Amino acid sequence: MKFKEEEKGLDVIGLVGSPRKKGNTDLLVDQVLAGVATAGLRVQKFYLNDLRIHPCQYCNYCRKHYSCRQEDDMALLYTAIEQCRGIVVGTPTFYGDITAQTKIFIDRCYRYVEVVRHPDGRNSFPSRLPDRRLGMMVGVTGSFGPETFNKQVEVIGLLFNDLNVGFADKVLYAGTDYRPVKENQAILTLAYAKGVEFGKRILNGIFA
């Protein structure tokens, strides 16, 4: 996958953390992005499983250099993140948590967070990215209940903090083992409607 010259300056990027194309997660991300596009915003979807992304080595190079020393396809996503105004992150549930593909991506975003130690011993974690963005999460789970999403939402929230992203909304769907997304028009319609609202907020500069 390439970040085409004519696609630079994209408004919203969708990140699919599932290895299954046209599966439950992918379909919901598609619906969100289709809704976003109605606002006239430019969108692009990335399949994390198709990209060569190495795990974070915790070498702390990024703490001093504000960049990552590893050379892989994460450079493509760094460019997309820094240029976009909105991010949609989608992941299915593997072993009650986000997928490995999603986790590797999140770990590699460590370069964007500043760790500030205050005189009273308290730490804060502001983003190094100056421009505010808006974010949405898409999550699905097969046989687990909706409580499974609690820790997933927390982790995506930490990611959004580091990317200077306002956590705008979520599309969460449990029970895909029994009723896949493609068989549930209601969740497809909901994802599209949330995408429309998401696009409107970005267009109007509402990033809270």
Specify the structural class: alpha/beta
The counted number of beta strands is: 7
Mean pLDDT: 94
CATH class: Alpha Beta
Query: CATH topology, what is it called?
Result: Rossmann fold
Percent of sequence in beta strands: 15-25%
Corresponding CATH architecture: 3-Layer(aba) Sandwich
Shape: globular
Poorly predicted residue ranges: 1-7
Instruction: Give Rg in angstroms.
Output: 17 Å
What is the helix/strand order?
Answer: EHEHHEHEEEHEH
Q: Structurally, how many domains make up the residues?
A: 1
CATH homologous superfamily assignment: Flavodoxin domain
Largest sheet: 5 strands, parallel
N-to-C span: 31 Å
Q: Biggest sheet, strands in spatial order?
A: 2-1-3-6-7
Helix content: 25-40%
* Count of DSSP-assigned helices: 6
Report on the architecture of this protein:
Residues 12-120 form the NADPH-dependent FMN reductase-like domain. Pfam families: FMN_red. One of its GO terms (molecular function) is oxidoreductase activity. The strands form two sheets. Strands 2-1-3-6-7 form a five-stranded parallel beta sheet, with helices on both faces. Strands 4-5 form a two-stranded antiparallel ribbon. Strand 4 and strand 5 form a beta hairpin. 34% of the residues lie in helices and 19% in strands. It has helices at 24-37, 61-65, 74-83, 100-107, 149-162, 185-203; strands at 12-16, 43-47, 86-91, 116-117, 123-124, 133-141, 165-174. It is built from six helices and seven strands; from the N terminus they run βαβααβαβββαβα. The chain has one domain: Flavodoxin domain (Rossmann fold), CATH 3.40.50.360. Helix 1 (24-37) crosses helix 6. The protein is globular. It starts with 11 loop residues before the first strand and ends in a 5-residue tail after the last helix. By secondary structure, it is of the alpha/beta class. Mean pLDDT is 94; it is low at 1-7.
